[in-house]
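Let us work through a complete example step by step.
Step 1: write down the sequence.
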Amino acid sequence: MLLWDQWKKGFEAWEGRTAEVFEQWLKRPAVLEPMGGMLSATMKLKAQSDKAMATWWAAMGLPTRRDQERTLHGLNQLQSRLIDLEEKLASLESKRS
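Step 2: predict the structure and record it as C-alpha cells.
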C-alpha cells in the first residue's frame, strides 16, 4: 500500500504541474488562432454536411429532422389542447353532478 500511496502522490504532482504548463500553452495566441480557424472550418463543413443530408432525405421523400421536429411540435400542441379539453369536460361533469 505504501508503494501505491507514493506513486499516487507522484502522479498527482506530475498531473498538477503538467496541467499548469498545458493551460499556459493553450492560452497563447499562436495556439488559439489556428485552433479557432480549425473550429470555424469544421463548423462550416458540418453545416454543409447537414444541408446536404437534409436535401438527400427530402429527395428520397423522407422527412428531414426539421420536418420531424415540426411534426412533433404540432403533436405536442394537440396533446396539450386535448388535455385542456378533458380537464374542462371533467370540470363541467363535476358541476353537473
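Step 3: interpret the result. The mean pLDDT is 93.
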